[in-house]
Design goal:
The chain is an alpha/beta fold. It has eleven helices and ten strands. 42% of the residues lie in helices and 20% in strands. β7 and β8 form a beta hairpin.
Length: 335
């Protein structure tokens, strides 16, 4: 089965062609992403109206590129899937309406996918992963821990109470005057910094040990920069490294605790912040010491992409499930 996947939940317009074999086993024939970083860079973050307008211009060229790279024509596609939420509603509508229009016109099965489910199953694009496993989904809009019991069976164990981890990276980068997107810049700067130079807090949520909070560390960085006695302004690499280390500490502690409590063999790291080199390095090392294996998508499948959306749709399509064409986008869609 050839599935055309479409993803437009935020500022990336993406399309992919996935060839499925069985549930959880597939080959990515193509994956194309149109990035908007240069558009939003001068604003220091994503402007929703600009994102959706850009999707209107780019979604069809992205689809055409995905089909060409996959070596197939639209008439050879067997089913179409698109993200229906969560995300920016204007952006979501562009991809969802495009997918529904194509599916209805061609008489093809259509499936609307939860964006978080796409991230949860992204590791399966390149790895065979035995279920159940613990998944840490960490991105600019989402940070949460899940127990993945089986396809379609996901238990949310905890998540952020305020900022997502990627959002904290972007906000701290803005405070430091580093530009956008902040996560990539801080990761690069931190490699040259002393991560023990500045003492920053590690937040814990009382009576909810799998929950997270990143607003406090953002405030701590702001106060460090404003302090007249601080030399943070003269040591940006050290501050970047100290901040990054604190975030990684806060992510790893509940993740490893969840893996121990639920007695799983594998931890999956996914989402845009899963591209962070320090997070990948430390999780691999500490999980191995604790007796867990770690799987993470390659960098191109960490950030938003349509291959993961097609993968999430594949098990439902293989079971004969379909969604109606009046399916609507939901900005706060729960998993």
């Amino acid at each position: 089965m050839l599935i055309l996947g479409i993803e437009s939940s935020c500022d990336d317009a993406a399309a992919a062609v996935l060839e499925t074999h069985t549930a959880g086993q597939a080959t990515v024939r193509s994956s194309v992403v149109a990035n908007q970083d240069q558009i939003h860079k001068r604003f220091g973050g994503v402007v929703p109206e600009l994102a959706s307008r850009c999707h209107v211009r780019t979604i069809l060229p992205v689809l055409e590129d995905a089909l060409e790279l996959a070596g197939c024509k639209l008439g050879q596609i067997d089913a179409i899937a698109a993200t229906r939420g969560p995300g920016l509603v204007g952006s979501l509508l562009v991809g969802l309406m495009c997918a529904k229009g194509l599916a209805q016109t061609l008489g093809l099965p259509f499936v609307g996918v939860n964006h978080i489910e796409g991230h949860l199953l992204a590791p399966l694009l390149e790895h065979r992963v035995e279920m159940p496993f613990i998944a840490l989904v960490v991105s600019g809009g989402h940070t949460a821990l899940f127990l993945v019991e089986d396809f379609g069976r996901y238990q949310r164990l905890g998540g952020t109470r305020d900022d997502a981890a990627g959002e904290a990276f972007d906000k701290v980068a803005k405070l430091m005057g580093l530009g956008y997107p902040g996560g990539r810049i801080i990761d690069e700067m931190a490699r040259q910094g002393d991560r023990r130079r500045f003492k920053l807090p590690r937040a814990r949520v009382r009576n909810a040990r799998f929950d997270l909070s990143f607003s406090g560390i953002k405030t701590a960085v702001a106060l460090t920069l404003r302090s007249g006695a601080s030399d943070a302004g003269a040591a940006p690499h050290d501050l970047a490294a100290s901040f990054q280390e604190a975030v990684v500490d806060m992510l790893l502690t509940p993740t490893l605790a969840a893996a121990r409590e639920h007695n799983v063999g594998t931890i999956a790291l996914t989402g845009g912040v899963a591209a962070n080199s320090r997070l990948r390095q430390r999780l691999s090392a500490e999980a191995e010491t604790a007796g867990f294996s770690v799987v993470a998508p390659s960098l191109k499948y960490c950030t938003d992409n349509a291959a993961m959306i097609a993968m999430a749709a594949s098990y439902r399509l293989l079971r004969g499930e379909r969604d109606p064409f009046d399916l609507d986008a939901q900005a706060s869609l729960a998993l």
